Amino acid sequence: MHITVRLCSLLLIILLTCLPLVICPILVLAHSLSDWWMQSAYLDSRMPVAMYTSPGVVLPKMHFQDRQGQMRFAAKLIAGVLDFKSMIDSETLPVEYLGGKPLCMDQYYQVLTSCRIPGPKRDVVVNYAIGKTPPSHITVVHNFQFFVLDVYNSDGSPLTVDQIYVQLEKIWNSSLQTNKEPVGILTSNHRNTWGKAYNNLIKDKTNKESVRAIQKSIFTVCLDAPMPRVSDEMYHNKVAAQMLHGGGSRWNSGNRWFDKTLQFIVGEDGSCGLTYEHAPAEGPPIVFLVDHVVDYMKRTEMVRTPMIPLPMPQKLRFNITPEIKKDIEKAKQNMNIMAHELDVRVLNFTHYGRKFPKSHKMSPDAFIQMALQLAYYRMYQTCCPTYESASLRMFRLGRTEAVRSTTTESLQFTKAMDDPSKHVQVYILVAFSVHTHMAIHGQGIERHMLGLKMMAIEDLTSLPEIFMDTSFAVAAHFNLYTSQVGSKTDCVMCFGPMVPDGYGICYNPMDDHINFAVTAFNSCEETNATKLSQFLEDSLLDMKTLLEQVSKTQ
């Protein structure tokens, strides 16, 4: 009986992975699978969103001459996002294509005017843009104090950069006190803890109105205090940490509302970027928005500013009871532990970029994935389960599928690289050809398996035995959790590891260099982000040498 059940399970897996593409869209992207993925990957998770699921994006450092430079930059950034929003509102956002096939654009319509709301067992994401009167304000936070900033004139036109700048100056001058309670840090807590604190916070009518104003805002802008000074070598590591968690309660972790889908961060010291709550969207739509905003900010604005006096931005008030104060103190302690726990290393690999593997007729992404395999093998003398995120946006409401980059061929390649007795050239093309094509066309196994599991749960039937098997748990313990998030902007996205003894690795291959962000947990003695980054750099250099040698012999 048990053998029959197991055989049936395995046959089902084989069937699912071999289904032709015409069947896969029906199976993979029935509307419920997108919901199931959002629930299981994000909304059911009780871990804090900061650091564990919310990525950060590090933008190039700005060199502000003074505070006005910071305000001017923030004003242009806000205007750029509003320009992007105009395409969303008018549904004129150009459809993206991959391999000549259109991609689902739904995620672009979920990132603005949305917010995650904590629940006792499962959170929800609410999109406030859906309705008769969508919100017309953003929130700005400075020195832990939140403000509502209306960004549209009475005729519906967006405020100009000059108008926004004037309003930001008002906000700055109204929030000079640095002793305010950092209510926003509550959102960084464990979801169950935050859920209880949330219900306690919104018992008060004023607090509830303030929270609703943040949740309903189009996006949030965080005007950050300067980071602690560090060496040039450590600067990008520190900025990446700032984007992920704010640096701790002494710095900018209270200058956030981590449940907000989009938070742009503009530091007084020129450190800039964003953090986003991951549930509504993947990385590519976020960096597409970033690219649009960066391009917009390069333009010279020729818009005449209306000479109409604008009302003072509304400061959001919070009544802090002893119980709320206690919750804030707990959140501060927890955030400080988390900030100390995460090791972040940004590697700017300058020796070559995506043009080099392309010149050898290789996929840059496959090339980088093999470099990651080689780096890990050299560090640990073994391979590990590896997750690379691949887009399923060829299908309606598609989110992601996992590419398992660790294969028999990749292991042969990594072993041969350091074994003089092996002809490593034999393994190159085979190892590098095993990649993303099947996953993006709906032929991966991860989401099929999720669908199978969730169907069993919803139908109240017993789980297929494979989900109880030790091998299944081992295969899903991704020590390398990776993603390519390419951008025209010279930036890098970063995120935390998926497992306690693993790494989070994100990369942006530019033409002539590659930006990497590598994270690990300090509490794990086996992992070391700095060491893996060094192995990665060496692996990329050795692979270049190898390819050049192969080219000479052909």
TrEMBL record:
UniProtKB keywords: Acyltransferase, Transferase
Top-level taxon of origin: Eukaryota
A Pfam family annotated for this UniProt entry: Carn_acyltransf
GO biological process, alphabetically ordered: carnitine metabolic process, CoA-linked
Active site residues according to the UniProt entry: H278
Cited SUPFAM superfamilies: CoA-dependent acyltransferases
Gene3D superfamilies: Chloramphenicol acetyltransferase-like domain (3.30.559.10), Choline/Carnitine o-acyltransferase, domain 2 (3.30.559.70)
Domain Choline/carnitine acyltransferase: 33-537
Family under the similarity heading: Belongs to the carnitine/choline acetyltransferase family.
Name of this chain's protein: Carnitine O-acetyltransferase-like
The species this protein was found in: Sinocyclocheilus rhinocerous
Gene name of this polypeptide: LOC107740996
